[in-house]
Amino acid sequence: MINEGESGALVEEWVELANGCVCCTVKHSLVQALEQLVQMKKKLDHILLETTGLANPAPLASVLWLDDQLESSVKLDSIVTVVDAKNLRFQLNRHRDSSSFPEAFLQIAFADVVILNKVDLVSQEQSEGALEELENEIHSINSLANIIRSIRCEVDLSQILNRQAYDATHATHLEALLEESKSLSSGDLHDSGVCTLCINQMEAVDLHKVRLWIEEILWDKKYGMDVYRCKGVLRVGNSDQLHTLQAVREIYEIVPTRQWRNEEKQMNRIVFIGNILY
C-alpha cells in the first residue's frame, strides 16, 4: 500500500501474509490482514483485491461475506471480472464439452460486474454484432451480471465501486428481480453447462419450508444441482415484508428487506447460477 507521507513523499507500507493462494490456503489470514489495514488506516474507502487470473473466487467470496455477517469491519462489496473480448469465445468453447469447468466459467458465474475489455480488437475485425454475441454469451452463464465495455480497462470507477452487491436491502438488486417481464433464465435447461435458472411462483410461501428446500439444494446438492450464486425475492405468508434471498455456495441468508409497495406484484422469484441446473 502506497501512501503520501510527510512533505508529500510516497511511503510504502506492507501487511505480510503467509505464502499461499489467497483464494484457498491463506484466505482466513487475508481477512485478518484486511482488518489490520482498516485499523491502521481509518480513512480507507475501498480495498481492491486483485487475484490471479486462474483464481476460483468462490472460497474467498464466501469467507468475506461470512465475515461481513459476523459484523467485521471489512465488507464484501462486489466481484468484478475482466474478460478478454478477443479470446473469450475460444476459452469457453475449448472447455464447453468438458465435465469440469475452467476458471473462465467460474469467474463469470460469480461476477457482479463483467468488464468486457479489448473491445477495440473485436470491432476492428468483426461487426458490432460480434460484441453483442459476446455479451449474450456472458449472460448465458450469468444473466444478472452488469457488463461494461472497455478499452485498456478504462472504466468509470462509479460503475465498479460501491456496488453493494451483497447488501440485501440495496434497491438495484431488487429491480431486476421484480421486473416480471424480464427473462433471467439462460441456455438449454438440459445442458450440463454453467447457466442461469429462474424460478417464479405467485403464491405466498412458508419461510421454514423454503429454508429446508434451499439447504437441500445448497448443502445436499439435491437434484444434482451445483449452485454457485443464488439471489431472490420472496413473498412470505402472513408477512407484509419483501424478503430477499442471497447465497454464495453453501452460505445463504434470507432477510426481510422492506414492505411490499402497492404498485408491486407480490411474487417469489429465485435465480440460481451454477452447473447442472435442471
TrEMBL record:
Pfam families: cobW, CobW_C. The keyword S-adenosyl-L-methionine does not apply. It catalyses: GTP + H2O = GDP + phosphate + H(+). One of its GO terms (molecular function) is hydrolase activity. Residues 12-148 form the CobW/HypB/UreG nucleotide-binding domain. Residues 195-275 form the CobW C-terminal domain. Keywords: Chaperone, GTP-binding, Hydrolase, Nucleotide-binding, Zinc. It comes from the Eukaryota. GO terms for cellular component: cytoplasm. Belongs to the SIMIBI class G3E GTPase family. ZNG1 subfamily. This is COBW domain-containing protein 1-like. It comes from Gossypium harknessii. The lineage of its organism: Eukaryota, Viridiplantae, Streptophyta, Embryophyta, Tracheophyta.
